[in-house]
Specification:
- This protein has eight helices and eleven strands.
- The chain is α+β, with helices and mostly antiparallel strands.
- It folds into two domains: 170 residues, no CATH class; 117 residues, no CATH class.
- Strands 2-6-7-1-5-4-3 form a seven-stranded antiparallel β-sheet.
- Helix 1 packs across helix 4 and helix 2 runs antiparallel to helix 4.
- The longest helix has 38 residues.
Length: 304
């Protein structure tokens, strides 16, 4: 069973430069690997059009081919990045192509603002003495606000505007089943966020409504900025920070409510009084109902 923990890290200015350069190197590798895949797909279409197949069938490029080529032709920038991080980038490309053939959208090239994470899949990282050590990058101050259970399998570094986070994916033992003595049903509505079978009602918070004025003001300022100049880029960051604050408020509320419900009752059934809502009510959007349901799923104990 896998469990994920996310913590904030605090790199210095020089370390931020190294992290950003690592992201840039990974992004360029992703785009180059995807370009090779797209070129091969175009060649296959031409061969199919003219019915010319040297080996009797279409030829495709796979992860193994690109990984072998990478080990033989690393650039100076790629040599500054841990080898498994680069391999994980190629696996992301391969996974995106597999998802495409399974029915998802075609993979896109990543712009500088669309590639915000890199992963150490097996080694190259260590937690020691309240610090996180990353191979070829350095050590970072980390706030471990909760105890990590199980064995850490992967370590992902993520940039969120001007903040940096680390996500650990841990392998833990299957939880011990517990006997549940109380049960409750939940109805999700518009006026009241939740109505429990006991009659208790939970009102939805007004995070989005409370931030509407601030968000509107900052978005207006953004619309007045001309394209390209630095002032517009700075304002984009300001708007993104307002959205991030709203998102964090939603997550915090959902986690607290779901934890309280699971600690005191077993969530027995879900019922929604909103049918075929094409335009959601602001109150529902503000509380992020999906996050709340997801929070209850991971917080539920194993029932005997």
């Amino acid at each position: 069973m896998r469990k994920t923990y996310q913590f904030r890290i605090y790199p210095g200015r020089k370390q931020e430069v190294v992290l950003s350069r690592t992201l840039s190197t990974c992004r360029h590798l992703y785009n180059n690997a995807l370009a090779v895949r797209k070129k091969q797909a175009a060649l296959n279409r031409l061969k199919k059009q003219f019915d010319v197949f040297p080996w009797g069938k279409t030829e495709w490029i796979y992860y193994e081919n690109q990984a072998n080529e990478l080990s033989e032709s690393k650039t100076n920038f790629q040599k500054e990045v841990h080898s498994q991080v680069l391999q994980n980038v190629l696996k992301r490309v391969d996974r995106s192509m597999v998802n495409f053939f399974a029915g998802s959208g075609y993979p896109r090239f990543k712009g500088r603002n669309r590639y915000d994470s890199f992963t150490y899949p097996q080694s190259g990282f260590e937690l020691k003495g309240g610090k996180l050590y990353l191979s070829k990058i350095g050590s970072f101050k980390i706030i471990l606000h909760r105890e990590i259970e199980g064995k850490i399998k992967t370590c992902t570094i993520k940039r969120d505007i001007d903040q940096w986070y680390v996500t650990f994916s841990c392998e833990i033992d299957n939880p011990v089943p517990v006997e549940i003595k109380t049960k409750t049903g939940i109805d999700v509505g518009l006026i009241d966020l939740l109505t429990l079978s006991s009659g208790e009602q939970i009102k939805p918070p007004k995070f989005l409504r409370e931030s509407e004025d601030k968000l509107t003001q900052e978005q207006k300022r953004l619309s007045w900025k001309k394209l390209r100049p630095q002032n517009r880029k700075k304002q984009v960051i300001v708007v993104a920070k307002v959205h991030r604050k709203i998102l964090n408020q939603r997550k915090d509320f959902a986690h607290k409510i779901s934890k309280n419900l699971v600690d005191n009752t077993l969530v027995n059934s879900w019922s929604s009084s909103i049918q075929q809502e094409h335009h959601r009510h602001v109150s529902v959007v503000s509380v992020s109902r999906k996050n709340f349901q997801r929070g209850n799923i991971y917080a539920l104990p194993v029932v005997l």
